[in-house]
Structure formats: C-alpha cells, structure tokens
Amino acid sequence: MLAKAIILIGGPQKGTRFRPLSMELAKPLFPLAGVPMLQHHIDACKKVPNIRQIFLMGFYDESEFATFMTQCISPDEGIQISYLRETQALGTGGGLMRYRDIILEGQPDILFVLHGDVCSSFPLNDMLAEHQKRAVTDHFTLMATQVERERAHLYGCVVENPETGEVLHYAEKPQTFVSDLISCGVFIFTPKLFDHINALSGPPALDLDCVDDEEADPRNSHNVSLERDVLVQLSGSGKLFVYKTLDFWTAVKTSGSALHANRCYLSFVRKSNPERLVAAKPAGSGFPTIVGDVIIDPTATVDPTCKLGPNVTIGPGAKIGAGVRIVDSIVLDQVEVKPHACIIHAVIGWQSIVGAWSRVEGVPGLPGTGNQYVNGQKNNGVTILGKGVEVAAEIIVRNCIVLPHKSLTSNQRNEILL
Ligand code: GTP
C-alpha cells in the first residue's frame, strides 16, 4: 500500500493573526519545542512506513522553505519532499485539485492531508489502522477531538454516529452549538477525493480535460474548501468516519497561541525524545536551575545562576545573564537577557534585548487563542516582543504586543505598541 502526505501551509496573507512573529518568518517555520512547527508533522509522517512522499502545499515563495526542506528529512530516510506552490490561495481543497496529477503519480492508495497550523502527536499509524478496519471501501477518515463546549464554535464541528463512527453532520465554525467534537485538520483520503471535488457544483465548472492552456485550466483558479465544500457534502453519505484522538491537540492561530503549543510539544518531547530536554539540576550545582520541561539550544549561553522553567525554550545564540528567571516562555535566536531580568508567559523575538532587572510578563491565554482584546486593546494575554525589540533596564512590560525594532524606555501595560 502506497501513501503520500500533503501538508497545507497556506501563505503570507494567511498568518496575519500570528503577527508580529510572522513578519520575520513564515508561520509554519516558527519554532515550537525548538524545531520548526512543520518538523513535528514531518516526523509523524516519517513514522508511517507507507509514506514515501511528502508535499508542502501553499502560496508562500518556495525559497522561504528551501533550507527547511533540505534539513527536515535526511537522504537515507528515503522519503521525498517537494513543494507544490499555488499562485494564489486556492483554499484547503483547491490546491489538491490543481496538483492532482502530481499527487496521484505512482497511484497512491492513501492520501494523508494535514493542516500545517495544528499541533498534535499526530498518531497517524493508529488512525490508518482504524481507517483500514472499517467494513467499507473508498471511505475517508477525519481526526477529531473533544474541546470545551464554549470553544467548539471556533472549529469544524462533527456529529458522529456513536455506534459506527460515521460522520452524520459537519458544520464549519457554526454560530450556534452543534457538537463539542471537532475536526483536528488531519485527514485520510483516497484518490476518490478528487471525484468528490470534481462533482461540486457551482461556477466555474471543473473541466479537468481542459489542461492545454495553463492559465485557462480551471484548476488554477478554483477555490475549494475541503471543510465547507467537501466534508459538509460527505457527511451522512456513509463515506466519512471519525478517528478520535485522546492525545493533545491545539491550533496555532494568534502569536500568543504559540506558547500553549510550545507547552504541548515540550511535554510530548518528554515522552518521545526526553534526551532533548535539559536534565533537572538543583540550585548550586554549577548549572542553571532547571524546573520541568526546558530546551536550551547548544549554541545558547546561560549563566549558572539562572532559573529556567517550566516550559521554556531558549533559541540558538541566545545569551541569558546572571540571576535571570524565565517561566513558560519562548526565547528566540540571538536574544540577550541581561542580569536579573524576569520573563514570564512571553515570546521574546529574534535579537531582542531585555534590560537588567526588567520584567516582561503576560498571562497565559486560552488554548488556540493566546491573546484577548477588549475595545481593540490587548488585555490579559501572552506578551510578544517582535524582532529586535529593546527593553531598557528596570522596565515592566505586561500583557503587550510589541512590533519589531521598538525601544521601550517606560513601563507598558495592555498595549499593542506599533
Ligand atoms: P481560520 O480560523 O480562518 O484560520 O480558519 P481555519 O482554522 O479553518 O484554518 P484554514 O482553513 O484557514 O486553514 C487550515 C490550514 O490550511 C492552515 O494550515 C492553512 O495554512 C492552510 N490553508 C488555508 N488556506 C489555504 C490555501 O488556500 N492553500 C493552502 N495550500 N493551504 C491553505
């Protein structure tokens, strides 16, 4: 059985809620637990023996992903990775249609489709086993998870037949409560998916035989939503089933939501690759004091008098001075944290400087949101410093989003600093 995976990564116009962090780096490459977000998807795909080819599909410039693509899979793993670029946003299903012929080369039996902005342990082997156990053919499976009732309307809601696991009803971000079972943005399709997309009504018609003129090819411009168009239509047809994961799942939408995702992946690393975490060290041992899950890049320098954790990642080339305390935060590449500064529930952007005795602090947001706004003002969220922000000594920055290259010389609270 041959399987391929397609990871939908969107494009520059999509990750706007991830500003200011997406101003420097495409959101799918933002580091979570010390590696690009997409690396977690790819590592999960590598564990499925049948996946020999992975496609990244999006409308970012290909060059933004070139380095990542050469590093994310080593040549001896024998898995091919390629980028399929949409010239414009074609929706979560339009790009699949646009590149149908390439995807179907070699006649794969199974197509895994993964949203690039979700975080999970991606139990793809388990999901495939359950998919294959069903006594039907040409069916599809979506991964689902239970969320709090109040947050369900933010996602694609699924009503299942509890006896058969069949999806009876699918509603994308419904206005009223439908179900607390939601789609995780992880799917198993077969090549039959293309027949379903092809059968969708509405202009322009998808005439897939008309491919001689690239521009005239309707596949190049037809926007299809897998969720709103295909899943809605498939529900109740006996062809779409649920695979429920009890493991963690979250979506990365706002920049603040990166912190919750980082926490999830750090605790996953504790189970899957504990050697990547810094071993806990007691105070006075000549090493920084480490509490809980912490990853420090080997090129970072951390003073032995620091206390880090839980849930902290320190990026390449960062310098953390004496007596610094960091809790539940992402410190990105080449950041300098001067002595005795304190960072709690914050993302510190590339090359930023946090002055001595300063305090950069947020409060943890809801999973998947991370920042809240009241009357257009940011309130009660993770503090985010964009790239190259300078916080002067003895300053308190609380619940703020700070755009790149700002210098803060006075205390700030609940502000978006442009
Ligand atoms: P939002 O709340 O608006 O973000 O909607 P959503 O949570 O339903 O997410 P959305 O459907 O916009 O995106 C799901 C995944 O598909 C994300 O990883 C996107 O980057 C990706 N995606 C969205 N639109 C496109 C598209 O036009 N082309 C490609 N290739 N990927 C896309």
Automatic annotation (TrEMBL):
PROSITE patterns with a match to the protein in the record: HEXAPEP_TRANSFERASES
Membership in a protein family: Belongs to the transferase hexapeptide repeat family.
MF terms (GO), sorted A to Z: nucleotidyltransferase activity
Pfam families: GMPPB_C, NTP_transferase
Entry-linked InterPro entries: GMPPB_C (IPR056729), Hexapep_transf_CS (IPR018357), Mannose-1P_guanyltransferase (IPR050486), NTP_transferase_dom (IPR005835), Nucleotide-diphossugar_trans (IPR029044)
Record key words, sorted: Nucleotidyltransferase, Transferase
All copies of domain Mannose-1-phosphate guanyltransferase C-terminal, residue ranges: 290-416
Protein name: Mannose-1-phosphate guanylyltransferase
Top-level taxon: Eukaryota
Residue ranges annotated for the Nucleotidyl transferase domain, each copy included: 4-197
